[in-house]
Design goal:
- With 116 residues, this protein is mainly beta.
- Helix content is 3%, strand content 47%.
- The strands form 2 sheets. The chain has a 5-stranded antiparallel sheet, with no helix packed on it. A 4-stranded antiparallel sheet has the order 3-8-5-6, with no helix packed on it.
- A hairpin with a 2-residue loop joins β5 and β6.
Length: 116
């Protein structure tokens, strides 16, 4: 399977995940749409910075490879493989990745119980 040049750490995902549609956002991910949420299988090169932002989805994710440094409402916390994190809907947050990192992230749409 030929992957876009930026997606390198995604190679530890199984072929079924790599065959999902590519996410059209500002980072590399494969997207699985579900009724109340979207599921993203995302990968980030070392040095990736996601600036402060907010959105209407509540996000829950688990790191599968590497490390996430997540800042929510001004407080930064590290997450490694197997660690779960939560970003409430409309909370200002940012992320940085010092190492090549992959995660599985659930974006719960507003109106679903998790987005509240």
């Amino acid at each position: 399977m030929s992957l876009p040049p930026r997606i390198t750490s995604a190679l530890h995902f199984p072929p079924e995940i790599l065959a999902l549609p590519k996410f059209g956002g500002p980072f590399d991910a494969f997207k699985l749409e579900a009724g109340v949420c979207d599921v993203l299988f995302a990968s980030y090169p070392a040095g990736t910075l996601i600036p402060p932002h907010q959105h209407d989805t509540a996000n829950v994710g688990v790191i599968t490879h590497g490390e996430l440094l997540l800042t929510v409402d001004g407080a930064e916390k590290r997450y490694g493989p197997g660690d779960w994190y939560h970003v409430p809907a409309r909370a200002e947050h940012s992320a940085r990745f010092e190492h090549e990192t992959s995660e599985i992230e659930f974006w719960f749409h507003s109106g679903s119980r998790a987005a509240i």
